[in-house]
Amino acid sequence: MVQRIKRRTTEWWGDSGKESNRPNILSMIKNNTLDTRLAAMLWLLFDRGSSVIFASEEKSSGKTSMLSALIDFIPPNYQKSYVYGPKFESPEQEEGLTKTYLLTPGISDTHESNLWKSDVAKMLKWSNDGGPFGTTMYAGSPEHVIRVFSTSPLKVPNKALSKIGVIVIVDAISTGGRSVSRRVRELALVVPEKSGKPKLITLVGWEPDLDQYNFMDSQLAISNLSKHLNLDIDKLESEINRLRRRLEAWIAIGTSTTSEVRKAVNQYYINQ
């Protein structure tokens, strides 16, 4: 079930009629934006109801593309609610669904469809009780994201910052001429602290010289991610690998278009 609130723009991927142009995770794996393990981690985050912010300092870096590619991986027991700015309005729960996943175009003052100032705090307050959210924003690092939230004009309290969940930093890299490649520079977990700002734990980093992703396997990273996902620590790796194998199987049989990916994901959840 999809709910749309205050649809004032046709410029965002949430608008209907853009299905053929919407990117998908398998195409991002094929063009090396993601590898299968990182894609599986992102799927697991959405599957387990984590809030995720995709951020970059630059326009056209792939923030919205990556978020839009993952909306099909939100489990069917969630109502997907597209909430447009500039004012935040709490989504209404559809009958028969117990959870809501809120999707909003961005956090900035650059467009009326985005949320800004006090409406960002209202969204985080809703998330505290209502469910996870996915969005984008302009920031060059996880620390920059936290700084934007905690300083003027947003001034979000430290307690509310813990609802951010996971921050994904996306980069656009020139490969010569007009060619551009996109990579996830960092994936960081936002961990609540008893006092002060939340702690940031890097889970994935990109090594530009080798053009490969490094996955942090420290006990600190594994235990905090397991806790965040409400998943037994000894099941975390097997869950990531299970989803990874599923993605690899879809690629092997030629699943490629966005509609094919959506159908494959829907069938996956039906079979669970």
How would you describe what is shown here?
With 272 residues, the protein is α/β, with parallel strands linked by helices. The protein has one domain (2-11, 23-271): P-loop containing nucleotide triphosphate hydrolases (Rossmann fold, 3-Layer(aba) Sandwich), CATH 3.40.50. 35% of the residues lie in helices and 22% in strands. It has a 9-stranded mixed β-sheet, sandwiched between helices. The protein starts with a strand and ends with a helix.
Number of helices: 9
Parts with pLDDT < 50 across at least 5 consecutive residues: 4-12
Count of individual domains = 1
The percent range for strand residues is: 15-25%
| Straight-line distance between termini | 19 Å
Identify the strand order in the major beta sheet: 1-3-4-5-2-6-7-8-9
Q: Quote the average pLDDT.
A: 89
- Global structural class: alpha/beta
Question: Which short descriptors sum up this protein?
Answer:
22% strand; globular; Rossmann fold; alpha/beta; 272 residues; 9 strands
Structure in a nutshell:
35% of the residues lie in helices and 22% in strands.
Write the layout of secondary structure elements.
Layout: E1 2-5, H1 25-30, H2 36-47, E2 52-56, H3 63-70, E3 78-83, E4 99-103, H4 118-130, E5 133-138, H5 142-150, H6 158-161, E6 166-174, E7 180-191, E8 199-207, E9 212-215, H7 219-229, H8 236-252, H9 258-271
Parallel strand pairs: 1-3, 2-5, 2-6, 3-4, 4-5
Antiparallel strand pairs: 6-7, 7-8, 8-9
